[in-house]
Amino acid sequence: MKLYKHALQLLLLQILLVLIASPAFSFGRDDFVAQTIYDLLQEKSQDKRIIFEPKYSSGKKMDAIKTHLEDIKTITLGKFEPSRSSFRAIIHYNNGKSDVLSGRYESYILVPVAARYIKFGSVIQSIDFTTKKTRLVSLAQGYATEESEIIGMQSKKYINIGHMFELRELARPLVIKTNDPVNITYSVSSIHLKTVGVAMGSGSVGDMLRVKNTSSGAILLGQIINKNTVQIGGNNE
């Protein structure tokens, strides 16, 4: 029985030693230099949405630096040149010496793309898109780069799966159309009036729209506040 318990203890000890030596435990330490340099690049970026992928000029130097992790005091960014997509990191050691690690980087950004086929006239919701990592240099002007630019917008064309959203092909949904009955509110100082009228055109929330007062026949210009409501005066004067 004692022999069995001793053998079991030895087996458990061997398993523990294997786990301690496993790359799963050492990965974080080995990746310390790369992670620190990545964080320093992120700090330099004015756009926090940008994802950096550094590529080092010398893999051998990086491997050599990793063998002295315990001796590293600090890591600083000596050079950061966005125009050349290059950087130079300085590794400072406790003994006063230092190493220089140079490289270049690729910049990416997560952009919304259609997750399913979007029909003409559809109002885009969160389930209609996903994100795709895209190289910043290959991203053309005029395409949506944030979710807020497309959610609630109406598509002016058919959009295939995987395609990015072109801003000029999106529009705010029309909430009032020509000849729709509308509520007309008038606000100035402490005076607040409400009447009814007819829309003389179509528009989205925030648009200026001409409406006809049903009672007086007067044509008024106001701002669309919500569905069926146009405000005259106030901040729109």
Short description:
Helix content is 21%, strand content 37%. By secondary structure, the chain is α+β, with helices and mostly antiparallel strands. The longest helix has 20 residues, at 2-21.
Question: Secondary-structure blueprint of this entry?
Answer:
Elements: H1 2-21, H2 23-30, H3 32-44, E1 51-56, H4 59-66, E2 72-81, E3 86-93, E4 98-114, E5 129-135, E6 154-155, E7 170-171, E8 181-188, E9 191-199, E10 208-213, E11 219-226, E12 229-233
Parallel strand pairs: 8-12
Antiparallel strand pairs: 1-4, 2-3, 3-4, 4-5, 6-7, 8-9, 9-10, 10-11, 11-12
Detailed description of the structure:
This protein has 237 residues and is of the alpha+beta class. It folds into 3 domains: 30-107, no CATH class; 109-171, Antifreeze-like/N-acetylneuraminic acid synthase C-terminal domain (Type Iii Antifreeze Protein Isoform Hplc 12), CATH 3.90.1210.10; 181-236, SH3 type barrels (Roll), CATH 2.30.30.760. 21% of the residues lie in helices and 37% in strands. The protein is built from 4 helices and 12 strands. It has helices at 2-21, 23-30, 32-44, 59-66, and strands at residues 51-56, 72-81, 86-93, 98-114, 129-135, 154-155, 170-171, 181-188, 191-199, 208-213, 219-226, 229-233. A hairpin with a 5-residue loop joins strand 10 (208-213) and strand 11 (219-226). The longest helix is centred in the first third of the chain and has 20 residues, at 2-21. It is elongated, with a radius of gyration of 31 Å. Residues 15-28 have low confidence and may be disordered.
